[in-house]
């Protein structure tokens, strides 16, 4: 996949600045711990039991994270697309192997950021720290709280309607069986729900 490295890094800078502007010094230090990676469709960015030291910014493409239950059935936990970050934060913070997989659903380009070095920069630069806090508040606290609420208190049809609204910009790129897995229902059940909604 042909890419312009400057465009890729400009995208990361623009995205980070939208949360909190980074100084030139902070940005130059951050770039030193980044590298661009191409990931092919269906390839695993991270696999079970890997020990990793990266978080990744999606410049182009689409990913999902999933785990397996005791029956070997897949449970899709989340989706990540352009301008979003993915990374096994629990494993990184606890220095443990992964318990879930990150899979590319399309040919993708990401920027990998060394997590240990990133943590060092957080302690050094207040602007990076503010970006980090604001990003976590929006994507790891507020959205996860809403997802947990939906899973417990809404029925399958309401969960799908919420999913349609929250993921409307990528839903056409997602296979139906991954959507069903994310909602905690079978593909057959999802097909029935979609048919019912179309008939209304």
UniProtKB/TrEMBL annotation:
Domain Cyclic nucleotide-binding, chain residue ranges per copy: 18-139
Taxonomy, superkingdom: Bacteria
InterPro entries to which the protein is assigned, alphabetical: cNMP-bd_dom, cNMP-bd_dom_sf, RmlC-like_jellyroll
Coiled-coil annotated spans: none
UniProt cross-references to Pfam families, sorted A to Z: cNMP_binding (PF00027)
Position of the signal peptide: none
Name of the protein this chain belongs to: Cyclic nucleotide-binding protein
Species of origin: Halarcobacter mediterraneus
